Amino acid sequence: MVEEEGIRVVRCGGSELNFRRAVFSADSKYIFCVSGDFIKVYSTATEECVHILQGHRNLVTGIQLNPNNHLQLYSCSVDGTIKLWDYIDGILIKTFRVGCELHALFTLSHAEDSVFVTINKEKPDVFQLASVKLPKSSSQEIEAKELSFVLDYVNQSPKCIAFGNEGEYVAAVRDFYLSVYFFKKKTTTRFTLSSSRNKKHARNNFTCVTCHPKEDCIATGHKDGKIRLWRNFDDEKKYTYTCLHWHHDLVMDLAFSVTGSSLLSGGRESVLVEWREAAEKNKEFLPRLGATIEHISVSPAGDLFCTSHSDNKITIIHRNLEASAVIQGLVKDRSIFTGLMIDPRTKALVLNGKPGHLQFYSLQSDKQLYNLDIIQQEYINDSGLIQIELTKAAFGCYGNWLATVEQRQEKETELELQMKLWMYNKKTQGFVLNTKVNMPHEDHITALCFCNAEKSESSTLVTASKDGHFKVWILTDDSDIYKKAVGWTCDFVGSYHKYQATNCCFSEDGSLLAVSFEEIVTIWDSETWELKCTFCQRAGKIRHLCFGRLTCSKYLLGVTENGILCCWNLLSCALEWSTKLNVRVMEPDPNSENIAAIAQSSVGSDLFVFKPSEPRPLYIQKNICREEVLWGVFVPRDVPESFTSEAYQWLNRSQFYFLTKSQSLLTFSTQSPEEKLTPTSKQLLAEESLPTTPFYFLLGKHRKEQQNDKLNEALENELVQLPLTENIPAISELLRTPAHVLPSASFLCSMFVNSLLLSKETKSAEEHPDDVDMVEEKESDDSDEENNFTEKIQDTNNTDLEEDIIYQLSKSEEKELKKFRKVDYSWIAAL
Fold it and tell me: What is the Cα gyration radius of the chain?
């Protein structure tokens, strides 16, 4: 049973993993990234999330390793606190209350009791770099009010501030200015590039900065795609800089390697560039990373890099510029046109992803499963280009079919519309394009839905459009003489007084189809496509439409643009009840009669859960979030919950997810994000720290994982592949038997070593005739007896020779068999 006070709204995904630079652990086994008000700890080898550090009350804006303890992590937040974590155990160690909003965090190895933060002054766009002294105390919460200012008028982004030459100076860029502060001299030098008034230097703006770890060298990225390397910057008159230019657009981020021998850069080209020895001619590329590179990080050990991308993805890269792992979060598109859907097969959340793609997102592991390319065209990153948009999608027939709609409109009279129907292929475990319909309607498609009734004889799809029609598409034979191909064709076209069709949905049993034409709801018979009745509610156009489920299947609910929620009784063809409620999202639970409605209020969004048969809501929660909620969906549970309270029983069979305007995915749960991690993820921290000793290989605990892991293929080729010792009885008994009852080691040694020997393929008689002759001479008597035995077996089974083939041992195998017969295993039975 679950206590009702444990229910709360939790963020379950959708937070930006690319908001700040990711940070590697000292041994490169883990990578830390900011995710909303959490810090997520991922394994670089398995891509699994092993911990979620939860404690900040607002957006986390910076993370850094503790330079004095590589097993600890600092974090800062807009809530005005700096927290120290033990990331191995996921424990909060200390909290330092600074008292003002913190926007970036930096640490230095020689500054043991202080960190550097970016704070906001009185004006909203003016920021300062300050040093915060962290007092030493045994208490968990400490006041840290002692601040000393270092640089003024800096950029809010941490990409625009960098410390160089082991902390001797700090460089900051903003607009056309580069400022360098020297800690020993306590002086500041400032350099200015040509302003935008000159057309030749119109894009000289600084975008990022990084410093050489061991030399006096500063690298800056610019809006025009150039990289400038600054030297002799301790003198405002004698400074010099050289230019590196490959990027055609602005440089998003820069990073030096640990030794400073190479410089990494990235931008909108989705290509990681490595400038070796900071030379124009000596550069290497890692192309086709999928999206704009926003951040670049280097591990302290220098063996790994990572890039954060605009599609909410982190790519882990080896030193030789080979991508080794990808941590993919929920892709944030410009707008979610398709809404939230659930794949009936994988129970994955499906919505708009990369341009022209549908993303399948695992709600359990909080990561993307795969992308389905719908538009199947190369995406051109140009702000002035009108792209093809994926606007509608729907699953049907228990996940066997997927319908999508894509459109592009450059002018009002130039509409490009295409509908595609995809069939699930069991062999490839993916969707394959089956039917493509060009211009299925003359205007924008407003809704589409499948008939998912269990007793439905044929597959049916309905589309509604602004052209005033709704069309019924059925699956028919579109085959040759072999009758093996199927396709979709239009079976019926309906309209109502030339009104625009805005919504459509089927009843639970599939017998009725409801189509809304602006302010009027029409009910159609799905067998004859005859108009049965109409409902008219002069309160604005119908925004949402859905039938009741199970015992409430006789009710139809509709929401108007003027904020009226209506419920009609299909048996009496009359309005059952209505209420004034500004509903933005209305979703029926497929496993119960409950319906969730989210209404927009002046202070936020409110949730109402009700049954159509009862106008009194079962559950009301005000202000579930401050933002506007755009979409919602019920996800059936694999294991039902057992809430005892009547107010929370609507969560027993299904879990409700909703997406906000900032594309944060929220849900109602009794578990925190850390508690929702799978047991295997929690064990990774302990298992990865185990030493790979010979006894570790002997037990063979992770042998299956090593065989399936592509990352360890090179390592397995170099190591000697040990035999499978788990299934050998002698080895099992040797390991399980107490030491005080075992025979002497000299007695067991030969048997134990022989069991570990690798099996060797027998060589042909043609290659080694001498060896064969020797064996025949020494073992002639024994072999003759065994040959006679095998001949008897062949004679008795001669009639069934085609069905049963008796395996005949070679002479070398017979020799090995005799050796095993001579070994005495009787001591095992006596144990």
Answer: 34
Spatial separation of the C-alpha atoms in residues 810 and 765, rounded to whole Å: 10
**Cα–Cα nearest to 86, from 55, 116, 117, 130:** 55
Residues of the chain by 3-state class (helix, strand, coil), percent to 5: 15, 45, 40
Tell me the pLDDT tens digit for each residue of 371-415.
Answer: 999 998 877 766 677 888 999 999 988 889 999 999 998 887 789
Contacts of residue 262, Cβ cutoff 8 Å, sequence gap at least 6 = 256, 274, 275, 276, 277, 278
Structure-block tokens of residue 259: 């030794």
Top pLDDT among 30 and 279 is at 30
DSSP characters over 786-801? HHHHHHHHHHHTSTTT
Q: Is the dihedral of CA 491, 497, 500, 501 positive or negative?
A: negative
Distance (Å, whole) CA 60 – CA 16: 11
Query: CA 348, CA 362: separation in Å to the nearest integer?
Result: 5
The residue to which tokens 């906000």 are assigned: 660
Secondary structure string (H, E, C) spanning 88-127: CCCEEEEEEECCCCEEEEECCCCCCCEEEEEEECCCCCCE
Exposed/middle/buried for residue 73 (C-beta within 10 Å: 0-12, 13-18, 19+): buried
Residue pair 470/464 in contact by the 8 Å Cβ criterion: yes
Distance from C-alpha of 544 to C-alpha of 554, rounded to nearest angstrom: 17
Q: Is 313 helix (H, G, I), strand (E, B) or coil?
A: strand
Helix H or strand E encompassing 826 = helix 826-829
Condensed to tens digits (0 to 9), the pLDDT of residues 240-288 reads: 989 999 999 899 999 999 999 999 999 999 999 999 987 888 899 999 9
Q: Are 57 and 37 in contact (CB under 8 A)?
A: yes
Q: 811-822 and 780-796 helices cross at what angle (nearest 10)?
A: 110
Task: Give the residues across from 95 on adjacent strands.
Answer: 83, 141
**What are the angstrom distances between the C-alpha of 345 and each of 321, 396, 634?**
37, 11, 15
Axis crossing angle, helix 780-796 with helix 769-778, rounded to the nearest 10: 90
Q: What is the pLDDT of residue 519?
A: 92
Phi-psi region of 376 (alpha: psi -120 to 50; beta: other; left: phi over 0): left
Contact yes or no for 96/105 (Cβ under 8 A): no
Contact criterion met (CB below 8 Å) for 180 and 187 = no
* Separation CA 19–CA 369 (nearest Å): 22
Instruction: Residue 693: count other Cβ atoms within 10 Å of its Cβ.
Output: 9
Ramachandran region of residue 233, left (φ > 0), alpha (ψ -120 to 50) or beta?
Answer: alpha
Given CA atoms 731, 732, 736, 737 in this order, what sign does their dihedral have?
negative
Candidates 526, 525, 616; CA nearest to 567 is: 616
On the 0-12 / 13-18 / 19+ scale of CB atoms within 10 A, 59 is middle
Relative orientation angle of helices 811-822 and 769-778, to the nearest 10 degrees: 50
Token pair listed for 228: 């400038």
**516: helix, strand or coil:** strand
At 556, which helix (H) or strand (E)? strand 555-560
DSSP-assigned states of every residue in 559-623:
EETTSEEEEEETTTTEEEEEEE--EEEEEE-TTSS-EEEEEE-SSSEEEEEEETTEEEEEEEEEE
The C-alpha angle 460, 463, 465, rounded to 5 degrees, equals: 165
Q: How many other CB atoms are found less than 10 A from the CB of residue 192?
A: 10
Task: Indicate the pTM of the whole model.
Answer: 0.73
72-130 tens-digit pLDDT:
999 999 999 999 999 998 899 999 999 889 999 999 988 878 999 999 877 767 899 99
CA distances from 332 to 14, 18, 312, 544, 665 (A): 8, 11, 7, 24, 11
Alpha carbons 742 and 831: distance in angstroms, whole number: 9
List the beta bridge partners of residue 664. Answer: none
DSSP code at position 158: G
